[in-house]
């Protein structure tokens, strides 16, 4: 899945747009979107996706799980740990036309009875050939707080003194 084993050392991931190198010619569709995503710096090579992909390359009994996204994600659901799954496919806007937006969740699955516990760590958008990381709730909240405080950055000095008026000669002198 991953082409470059080196860790990402660029700008913060939620501030970049990533696009695959030109050699990715498969096109993005249901069965390729996770493999396309795996080439990006957003992808974690310690995830169950990578484990399953490597097993599929080297073990003929696991290879069929690489054929379709449904089989691949079905196999991921049997595993515990970090995984990337398609949370939402592109919505259809008309016959044969769609939004082209895929939503991918980075999540941890913990096997429990009767239902697995899922903790979502991040959300990513594949828009056409571009991949973006969604801002976290904390980032949104902190930016709104900073935006809210902007008008108040100028220190407000309360008027604690009143003008002083002295009138002893018939004329007023005002200080203040």
Automatic annotation (TrEMBL):
Keywords: Activator, Nucleus, Transcription, Transcription regulation. It holds the Pfam family Med6. GO terms for biological process: regulation of transcription by RNA polymerase II. InterPro entries: Mediator_Med6, Mediator_Med6_sf. GO terms for cellular component: mediator complex. One of its GO terms (molecular function) is transcription coregulator activity. Its main location: nucleus. It is found in: Nucleus. Belongs to the Mediator complex subunit 6 family. Component of the Mediator complex, a coactivator involved in the regulated transcription of nearly all RNA polymerase II-dependent genes. Mediator functions as a bridge to convey information from gene-specific regulatory proteins to the basal RNA polymerase II transcription machinery. Mediator is recruited to promoters by direct interactions with regulatory proteins and serves as a scaffold for the assembly of a functional preinitiation complex with RNA polymerase II and the general transcription factors. PANTHER family: MED-6-RELATED (PTHR13104). Component of the Mediator complex. This is Mediator of RNA polymerase II transcription subunit 6. The lineage of its organism: Eukaryota, Fungi, Dikarya, Ascomycota, Pezizomycotina.
